[in-house]
C-alpha cells in the first residue's frame, strides 16, 4: 500500500511542479499567439531535422550503455534499443521509473544482476552531467546569462562532483566500498544482510568497465554525441518556428532542459520544457511566444515519438527469456 501511495505522490508532485512551470512560462504570453506561431511554422525539413536528431540521440544512448555494460556479446545495439526506448517513455510519464524497467529487462532477458545494471545507469548519469557541463562551459562565456542560469550550471557541477566521487570510489577502491558496506550491514539480520551485500557486490561488478581509461573516454565521447543530438533537435525546433538563436544559446537550452529534468516532472515534461526554453532564450531577445512555441515543437517531435516508440517496446522489453 505504501508503495502505491508513493507512486501517487511522485505523480502528484510532478503535476504540481509542471503546473507551476506552465503558469510561469505562459505568464504574459497569450496562448493564442503561441498557437498562431505554431500554425505558421515550417513543418518540412526543420521538422525532419528534429526527428533525425531524436534517432541519433537514441543511438548514442544505446551505444554508450553497451560500453558501460562491458560490451557483452549477447547484447547487440538493436537488442538494447528496446529497453532504452521503454525507459525513456516511462521516464517521460513517471520520473526516473524507466531506469528500473531497464534493469528488470536485462535481468529477465539475459540474467544480468539488477544492481549491476542500475550501477551502470548511475555511471551513465554521471557522464550525462559531465557532457552537459562541457557544453555549458563552451556556451556560457559567449552569452550574457541570467543569475538563475548560472546557478543552474553550478547545481549541475555540484551534482556531477558528488556522483563522480561515488563512482570513482567504487571504481578504484571496490574493496574499501565492500568493507564499508559490510560494516553498515552488521546491524541487519542475516538474510537481509546477505542480500544487501550481494547487491553491493553486483553493483561494483556492474561499474567495473569504467576502470578502463579507453572505455571511459569512449563513454564520454558518446555522451557528447548524445547531447549534441539534443542540441540539433533544439535548433531544428527553432527553425520550425522561424528563428535561430545561435549555437551557444542552443547549447544553453540543452543545459536548461537537463536542469529542469532533475526536478519532479509532469507527464511529457509539460511545463519543464517550456520553462527551460523561456528562461534561456528570452534574455537573448527571443520573444516568449517564439520560445514557448519552440518548446512545444520539441515535445511534439522529440518527446512524443520517444513515448510512443517506448510504449510499443515495453511489453517485449519485460518478457522473460
Could you explain how this protein is built, in words?
With 321 residues, the protein is an all-alpha fold. It has one domain. The chain contains 13 helices and no strands. Helix 2 crosses helix 13, helix 3 packs antiparallel against helix 10 and helix 8 runs antiparallel to helix 9. The chain is globular and about 65 Å long. The model has no long low-confidence stretch (mean pLDDT 81).
User: What does the main sheet amount to?
Assistant: none
What count of helical segments does DSSP give?
Answer: 13
Number of domains: 1
Oligomer: single chain
Q: Level of helix content?
A: over 70%
Overall morphology: globular
Strand content: under 5%
Q: What is the SS-derived class?
A: mainly alpha
Low-pLDDT ranges: none
Roughly how many Å apart are the termini?
A: 30 Å
Radius of gyration: 20 Å
H/E element string? HHHHHHHHHHHHH
Tally of DSSP β-strands: 0
Mean pLDDT figure = 81
Concise overview:
By secondary structure, the protein is mainly α.
Which key terms come to mind for this protein?
mainly alpha; globular; single chain
List the helices and strands and how they pair.
Blueprint lengths: L1 H25 L4 H9 L5 H24 L8 H17 L4 H13 L3 H26 L7 H26 L1 H12 L4 H17 L6 H29 L5 H15 L10 H10 L6 H30 L4
Amino acid at each position: 500500500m505504501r508503495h502505491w501511495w508513493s507512486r501517487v505522490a511522485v505523480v502528484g508532485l510532478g503535476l504540481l511542479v509542471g503546473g507551476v512551470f506552465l503558469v510561469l512560462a505562459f505568464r504574459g504570453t497569450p496562448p493564442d499567439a503561441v498557437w498562431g506561431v505554431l500554425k505558421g511554422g515550417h513543418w518540412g525539413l526543420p521538422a525532419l531535422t528534429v526527428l533525425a536528431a531524436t534517432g541519433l540521440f537514441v543511438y548514442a544512448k544505446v551505444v554508450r550503455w553497451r560500453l558501460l555494460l562491458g560490451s557483452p556479446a549477447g547484447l547487440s545495439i538493436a537488442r538494447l534499443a528496446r529497453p532504452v526506448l521503454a525507459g525513456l517513455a516511462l521516464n517521460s510519464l513517471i520520473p526516473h521509473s524507466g531506469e528500473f524497467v531497464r534493469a528488470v529487462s536485462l535481468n529477465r532477458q539475459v540474467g544480468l544482476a539488477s544492481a549491476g545494471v542500475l550501477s551502470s545507469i548511475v555511471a551513465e548519469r554521471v557522464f550525462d552531467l559531465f557532457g552537459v557541463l562541457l557544453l555549458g562551459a563552451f556556451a556560457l562565456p559567449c552569452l550574457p546569462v541570467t543569475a538563475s542560469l548560472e546557478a543552474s550550471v553550478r547545481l549541475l557541477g555540484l551534482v556531477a562532483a558528488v556522483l563522480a566521487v561515488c563512482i570513482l570510489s567504487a571504481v578504484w577502491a571496490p574493496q574499501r566500498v565492500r568493507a564499508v558496506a559490510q560494516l553498515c550491514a552488521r546491524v541487519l539480520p542475516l538474510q537481509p544482510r546477505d542480500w544487501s551485500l550481494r547487491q553491493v557486490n553486483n553493483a561494483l561488478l556492474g561499474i567495473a568497465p569504467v576502470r578502463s581509461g579507453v572505455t571511459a573516454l569512449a563513454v564520454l565521447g558518446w555522451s557528447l554525441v548524445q547531447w549534441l543530438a539534443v542540441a540539433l533537435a533544439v535548433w531544428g525546433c527553432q527553425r520550425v518556428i522561424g528563428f535561430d538563436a545561435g549555437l551557444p544559446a542552443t547549447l544553453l537550452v540543452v543545459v536548461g532542459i537537463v536542469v529542469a529534468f532533475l526536478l519532479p516532472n509532469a507527464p511529457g515534461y509539460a511545463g519543464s520544457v517550456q520553462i527551460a526554453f523561456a528562461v534561456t532564450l528570452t534574455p537573448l531577445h527571443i520573444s516568449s511566444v517564439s520560445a514557448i512555441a519552440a518548446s512545444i515543437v520539441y515535445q511534439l517531435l522529440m518527446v512524443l515519438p520517444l513515448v510512443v516508440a517506448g510504449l510499443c517496446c515495453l511489453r517485449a522489453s519485460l518478457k522473460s527469456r
